Amino acid sequence: MCAKLWGTMSTLSVNFKSTVAALLIGVGNFLPAAGFAEVGTERSDDLIRQLAEAPDADAARSLEREIELEWSKSGSVSMDFLLKRGRDALAVNDFGLAIDHLTALTDHAPDFAEGWHTLAMAYFNADMVGPTMYALERTLALNPDHFGALRGLGAVFDQIGDPARAYDAYDKALSIRPFDKEVEEARDRLTAHSRGTTL
């Protein structure tokens, strides 16, 4: 259940493995690192504001698609191509090839948050837990509003039995991306187990 909470971008259809090892215990708090925050485009910032205030699920889904398109633009044709190749490999469960393409992408475009997020998904599918968490940390340092990465972070913490951090990640995702029934149910389930901590 927790693994499926890591929602992929709407253009992907990836089934995540449910096994997450206890290697994650002791990982940092995932605070956005000073100096790493990516400045969003004016359009994406406006769309995020609209998403948080969406009147219904249909409006939210439409805004999410626009946001995902904005986030997928690296500003480089070659980097966009590497992202596409990585996503294509993920879609056919070729995680090794996906990691190859996406590692090349993050090596050449280290400030491109979507590259890190997609790499995190590839690592997670390949059971590479430490690299998954590092890639999620980089994603959120560059784009603290990345609701996909927050969902992923919540799902991982949920599975390893860290309800306080899972609750906070889910709660933050919902503050950015409302009308996410699965995340809302997961957060509500954890309410009795956690007072929440600060991400």
UniProtKB/TrEMBL annotation:
<protein>
    <submittedName>
        <fullName>Uncharacterized protein</fullName>
    </submittedName>
</protein>
<dbReference type="Pfam" id="PF13432">
    <property type="entry name" value="TPR_16"/>
</dbReference>
<keyword id="KW-0802">TPR repeat</keyword>
<feature type="repeat" description="TPR">
    <location>
        <begin position="147"/>
        <end position="180"/>
    </location>
</feature>
<dbReference type="InterPro" id="IPR011990">
    <property type="entry name" value="TPR-like_helical_dom_sf"/>
</dbReference>
<dbReference type="InterPro" id="IPR019734">
    <property type="entry name" value="TPR_rpt"/>
</dbReference>
